[in-house]
Amino acid sequence: MKKSTKLWLAIAGVLLIVLGIICICKPASTLFAMAWLIGCFTLVAGISKLIFTFRTEAFLPNSGSRLLSAILQIILGVIFLANNLFLTISLPIIFAMWVLIEGVLIAIQSFDYKKVGFTYWWVILLLGIAGAVLGILGLRNPDVSAVTLSTIIGVGIIALGAAYIFALCGIQKFENTVKEIRNAMMP
Q1: Where are the domains of the chain?
Q2: What is the Cα–Cα distance from 129 to 33, expressed in whole angstroms?
Q3: Angle 26-28-32 from CA coordinates, rounded to 5°
Q4: What residues of the chain score a pLDDT lower than 70?
Q5: Please, are residues 13 and 161 in contact by the beta-carbon 8 Å criterion?
Q6: Of 41, 48, 36, 43, whose CA–CA distance to 78 is shortest?
Q7: Cα–Cα nearest to 94, from 13, 150, 164
Q8: For the chain, is the Cβ count within 10 Å smaller at the N or the C terminus?
Q9: pLDDT digits over 125-171, tens only?
Q10: CB of 16 closer than 8 Å to CB of 160
């Protein structure tokens, strides 16, 4: 694996931990700020896709579907920015779904680390399960206040960030196993 990929994995893990801590310390402010950022990112992504569509329509097929997608993204971005309160209310549920899905994926990937002999694969499994359970708790209690839900999700995000960092430790073991297999296959 490239060093840059490992670096991005480490950065993602640290940023997830920081994001989780922010969610716990300032949940209400975090939700409003994140709702605004999501609106901005969606709008900018839609505008970028629209420009890309117009610049490449002559030589890329299906530019009509890209144009429709770009327009829908722009509309969605404007709606998010205009209705920040709606997105703020739904944001804890969106994060809960993300933490649930990511937790399940991390738990499944932990078995790949076990196959290559990484000693602490079980830590990745437990952190993935913890993220999934916290995501389920966030989804099961939609009537819980955004502050409490943001705290639950913050803890889940910290667990995912820790899982990324532990996974990074296992990558070296995986790479060594692949090298051993390649060396064994070569005469």
Answers
A1: 3-181
A2: 28
A3: 115
A4: 1, 58-63, 142-146, 149, 187
A5: yes
A6: 43
A7: 150
A8: C
A9: 999 999 899 889 888 876 565 677 678 778 888 988 898 888 888 87
A10: yes
With contact defined as beta carbons under 8 Å apart, do 51 and 73 qualify?
no
- What percent of the chain has pLDDT above 70? 92
CA dihedral (20, 24, 25, 27) positive or negative: positive
Amino acid at residue number 175: E
DSSP characters over 116-148:
TT-TTHHHHHHHHHHHHHHHHHHHH-TTS-HHH
The pLDDT of residue 55 is 76
- Distance separating alpha carbons of residues 90 and 75, to the nearest angstrom: 18
| Secondary structure letter of residue 61 according to DSSP | S
Report the C-alpha gap between 181 and 187 in whole angstroms: 12
pLDDT at 143 (0 to 100): 59
SS3 state of residue 83? coil
Task: Tell me how far apart the alpha carbons of residues 94 and 88 are, in angstroms, rounded to a whole number.
Answer: 10
Instruction: Look at the pTM and tell me if it is higher than 0.85.
Output: no
